[in-house]
Amino acid sequence: DDDIFSSAFCENSEKLVNVHLFALAAKYYSLSNLGVCTPLEDVLEALKGDSEGAKGIKPDEFMNNKKSHEVQVMSELVDSIANYCGIKQVIDIGSGKGYLSSFLSMQYNLKVYGIDSSSSNTNGAHERNKKLKKHWRAYQKRGRENLKSQSLEQANDRQVESEINCETIHEELFNNASSLQNQDQVIIQDLVPSCGSIEMAISETNTETEADLVTGTQSHETKLSEDVLDVLNVLPGGAVEDFASSHNSGELCEEEKVQRKMTSLKTKARKSSESNLYFPLTSCITAETELNDIITDLEDCMMVGLHTCGDLAANTLRIFAAKPEIKAVCSVGCCYHLLSEQFESQEECHIQVWGFPMCQYLKDKGWCCGRNARMSACLALERVAAGQMLPTESLFYRAVLQVIIEEIYGVTKSDRHVGKTFSKSSSFIDYVRRSLKKLELDDSKLPDSCIMDYHEKYKHRMNELEAFNMLKVVLAPCIEVLILLDRLCYLKEQENIAWSGLVKLFDPVKSPRCYAVIALKNQSC
Predict the structure, then answer these.
(1) Cβ(336)–Cβ(486) under 8 Å?
(2) Contacts by residues 418-423 (CB-CB < 8 Å, ≥ 24 positions apart)
(3) Is the peptide bond before 193 cis (omega within 30 degrees of 0)?
(4) pLDDT of residue 32
(5) Which pLDDT does position 106 carry in this prediction?
(6) From CA 112, how far away is CA 8, in angstroms rounded?
(7) Model pTM?
(8) CA of 512: how far to CAs of 300, 380, 476, in Å?
């Protein structure tokens, strides 16, 4: 196969001469085609115990479609792993605004610590919890309305059934009485009281049915209250008022007063010791981070990360491998372009721990991707295939800007970034001037006419640029494979890990970075 695919390039010039063969080679070496992934369904089946899946809460009620999809799928897997390992504590690395953390705590009653390096993200997580107050009020109200509706339907069904049974019995009695007309009058007299007895029995049955209905309704209401109480524990103190029964129940006997007082004291004690189940924390995580310094009540737990950026995904795996109290990990990385590479630069660097490579095999080979390749790995082939085309104009603007800063300012490398300037710009001239200011370059010596000359000079090559970027998109999955397999191989090299694998969690059109690195430690570790 390697020999066949190599003919996609000219042997002498090494230029691409067969685009079709190039695309086939890229597909052949993509993760979906290599057969190294474990299906999510198989993982969930293997982890499944006697526990039933959680019901009721839908994340799409307070998240966008993409985030809802990610959180719902990943939280189910995380809960399954936690149940399998017998743990209740989860550490969410790079938790952002707490979408995954809050859902894990609300839906699955897990105690979650969300750690993010940005204080604004942590504050945002607190603010989100405040907004959830309105959501849970609506959820609680809707639940009670559904319960009331179900109870009324059950009551109507039972009433109709009782009436039918009663009519059937009376009809049978009438028929029996008619057939006995020629028999002795004493027998008939014996039969009449039995009719009254049956009517009495029916009355008693109806009374018991009503009592059962009331008891069942109270049971449902109790269950609903418990569920909502568990859910609202996720919110910070003071975010939600006490919604315990506020109606005036009249005079209470002393025994009931004592019972209510004891219940109140127990509730306060529980809330003081465990005020909520989700704790947003601000801290920068590195491979050397001591979690005990951040989490005072650290216990057996698992680490998760939903789209952890750059080196954070690699550091998550290193911490997992090094700390005995962390029994499992589920990490979905992103932002490959921000990874640090050990063999990328020949300059002396004081970094001791690198984002890539992680495994000894690639380290021994001195493997390097480079920033351009890592940038390509971030592209979304499935989205392009689904019709979401590349932003050709913004890419063209960026390419021409590169020429301008090299030819006019002599700058070939900069630590500064242009960022999302295109969306804020009204024209190419505006884009160039905004970008030069971000790069701290003097734009006064560059007249508008000069800027437009560059635009006109390269405008005819826009199709060429689009074709080039499409080739990058086709190659993107192959580069992502290299990064993900490096992480998996690192885990395979560890002696204390019972199982590790790559699992496709998400729909790649909704969420392009869709692969999770998952591992479980040996039970003795």
Answers:
(1) no
(2) 422/391, 422/393, 422/394, 422/397, 422/398, 423/394
(3) no
(4) 86
(5) 83
(6) 50
(7) 0.71
(8) 32, 6, 11
> What whole-number distance in Å separates Cα of residue 161 and Cα of residue 168?
11
What pLDDT does 456 receive? 97
DSSP 139-178: HHHHHHHHHHHHHHHHHHHHHHHHHHHHHHHHHHHHHHHH
What is the amino acid identity at position 517?
A: V
Name, in order, each residue with C-beta under 8 angstroms of 364's C-beta and a sequence gap of 6 or more: none
Q: Which residue has the tokens 């204390």?
A: 496
- For residue 362, the model assigns a pLDDT of 97
Q: Where are the alpha helices (DSSP H) in 274-385?
A: 311-322, 360-364, 371-377, 381-385
pLDDT in tens, 296-312: 999 999 999 999 999 99
**Cα gap 507→499, rounded to integer Å:** 24
- Asked if residue 388 lies in contact with residue 501, where contact means CB atoms within 8 angstroms, the answer is no
Residue 393 neighbours by CB distance under 10 Å? 12
- Cβ proximity of 49 and 84 under 8 Å: yes
Separation of CA 230 from chain center? 20
64: phi then psi, degrees, rounded to nearest 5: -75, 170
270 conformational bin, left if phi > 0, alpha if psi -120 to 50, beta if neither = alpha
H or E stretch at 279? strand 278-282
Low-confidence ranges of the chain (pLDDT < 70): 1-2, 49-62, 125-126, 128-276, 346-351, 525
CB 297 within 8 A of CB 113: no
Which of 43, 81, 96 lies closest to 329 in space, CA to CA? 81
pLDDT at 128: 67
Place of tokens 């002795």: 184
Six token digits for residue 404: 């301008």
Cβ proximity of 89 and 111 under 8 Å: yes
